[in-house]
Write a structure and sequence with these properties.
This protein is α/β, with parallel strands linked by helices. The chain contains nine helices and eleven strands. The chain has one domain: 3-Layer(aba) Sandwich (Rossmann fold). Helices cover 39% and strands 22% of the residues. Bound molecules: adenosine-5'-triphosphate and magnesium ion. Magnesium ion binds next to helix 1.
Length: 237
């Protein structure tokens, strides 16, 4: 993206240039209110920026509705507060495949495997309204992954999970990236998580990129004092 700005009552994003390469895992870190979720919503075309251009596969995103839909279908966002349909876990996870006209016979096995991978095999028939927040978050991840997107946008995917579930979800993200080459852009508050799974990290503060680079380098030798403070778990002002 180039020259991207977004303002609500004040400016919340101002990004001169940001590029994600296919096949990598990116961690977007930054304090609360830095603009991380806004950036993901704009990337997923849920919200337009006030200015700037977003390129996908090297081409500007299309103004043409049909072409844009095709581009949009190659990416999926798992939101910070996911909204599930008022139906079972299985039906939620299968939503994308159903919407695209696949029949249940063909995708049942695939959805069952996915539910197992997110640790929800035994909850397949449970109604979404009765799930804990961590379970709901994992259903949303399964639903997103079932689409087989080229680009997976994750907003705090493990915020409500306990350590064993965090490990499971991190393993799934790594596997999707390794086996299918899915590009992942993951927002996380958790600097340890970014360090564990992201190859590259972006540090966002007050809507601007303070620093971006190879994860180990940013953690061990940050160029900016604000990044250093953040990765050391200190407050930044
Ligand atoms: N629809 C909106 N209307 C007005 N202000 C908004 C809107 N969405 C976001 N903001 C503001 O924009 C700023 C950035 O919000 P955003 O949700 O992107 O932050 P974030 O980095 O994801 O924070 P967190 O880590 O708490 O999730 C915040 O100050 C927020 O209050
Ligand atoms: Mg957020």
């Amino acid at each position: 993206m180039e020259g991207l700005t977004k303002r609500y009552s004040r400016e919340v994003l101002n990004i001169k240039h940001l590029a994600f390469q296919r096949g990598n895992i990116y961690g977007i870190m930054g304090p609360s209110g830095a603009g991380k979720s806004t950036l993901l919503r704009i990337l997923n075309l849920l919200e337009p920026p006030d200015s700037g251009v977003i390129y996908f596969d090297g081409r500007p995103l299309s103004d043409n509705g049909r072409e844009r839909l095709i581009q949009q279908r190659r990416m999926t966002l798992v939101a910070q507060k996911p909204v599930l349909f008022q139906t079972s876990v299985f039906e939620n996870a299968a939503f994308g495949l159903k919407a695209r006209g696949y029949c249940k016979r063909d995708f049942r096995g695939k959805i069952e495997l996915l539910l197992e991978q997110v640790g929800l095999r035994d909850l397949s028939r449970q109604h979404s309204a009765t799930l804990s927040s961590g379970e709901a978050q994992r259903v949303a991840l399964a639903r997103a992954v079932a689409f087989e997107p080229d680009l997976l946008l994750l907003d705090e995917p493990t915020a409500n999970l306990d350590p064993s579930n965090v490990e499971m979800i991190e393993q799934l993200i790594l596997k999707l990236n390794r086996d299918r080459g899915i590009t992942v852009v993951m927002v996380t508050h958790n600097i340890f998580q970014a360090r564990r799974i992201a190859g590259q990290v972006v540090f966002l503060n007050e809507g601007r990129i303070v620093e971006m680079g190879e994860t180990e380098r940013v953690f061990t030798d940050p160029a900016d004092p604000r990044t250093r403070a953040f990765v050391e778990g200190r407050m930044i002002y």
